[in-house]
Design goal:
Chain lengths: 116, 112
């Protein structure tokens, strides 16, 4: 059974940083691209970032480019998202998702709240 | 960026009746590899999104056959043949033909 378990969310002040993690199991993690998608409270889905199988190529939404960094450790079956220079507009539930030009499996999400 | 526009944004439906959601993209979703990377997701209240349909018309594993997808180019449709109570939620179309991946605004399906 495919499982994706996000962690690392929390309350952070504007300008602060967080590192999100997504532990994957139930599939060959190193064989699949992965992605982060976020959802602000009461809002729709917003794609954030994606990474290829080896981690050699990454993609970002313009809204996070230069502030967020996606990475992965295939030896640990774990996906990461480093969030820097956070603003209130980054407040959202952050999901990790397995990516094959569609998102076939999603985690439950980890909540990031940016507030002073 | 490719803009995805869904209609309607809200759809009250009677149990057992059909429902249809349209999704239009601002440019063709046909990839250079010949595939069309349009998918549909369902998000039930308090739950993460769930994949229903990928590449326009392929039902994902475990998805009931009352869900179907169709379309081509820039115009796509999700149909539910007979709505059940468990279908309540928000439905999103999304494109992954090119980065950035983009989603429609979501269509809220509710029971009359």
């Amino acid at each position: 059974e495919v499982q994706l378990l996000e962690s690392g969310g929390g309350l952070v002040q504007p300008g602060g940083s967080l590192r999100l993690s997504c532990a994957a199991s139930g599939f060959t993690f190193s064989s699949y691209a992965m992605s982060w998608v976020r959802q602000a409270p009461g809002k729709g889905l917003e794609w954030v970032s994606a990474i290829t199988t080896s981690g050699g190529t990454t993609y970002y939404a313009d809204s996070v480019k230069g502030r967020f960094t996606i990475s992965r450790d295939n030896s640990k079956n774990t996906l990461y998202l480093q969030l820097n220079s956070l603003t209130a507009e980054d407040t959202a539930l952050y999901y990790c998702a397995k990516y094959q030009r569609y998102f076939d499996y999603w985690g439950q999400g980890t909540l990031v709240t940016v507030s002073s | 960026d490719i803009v995805m526009t869904q209609t309607p944004l809200s759809s009250p439906v009677t149990l057992g009746q059909p429902a249809s959601i349209s999704c239009r993209s601002s440019q063709s979703l046909v990839h250079s590899d010949g595939n069309t990377y349009l998918s549909w997701l369902q998000q039930r209240p308090g739950q993460p999104p769930r994949l229903l349909i990928y590449q326009v018309s392929n039902r994902f594993s475990g998805v009931p056959d009352r869900f179907s997808g169709s379309g081509a180019g820039t115009d796509f449709t999700l149909k539910i043949s007979r709505v059940e109570a468990e279908d309540v939620g928000v439905y999103y179309c999304m494109q992954a033909t090119q980065f950035p991946v983009t989603f429609g605004q979501g269509t809220r399906l509710e029971i009359k």
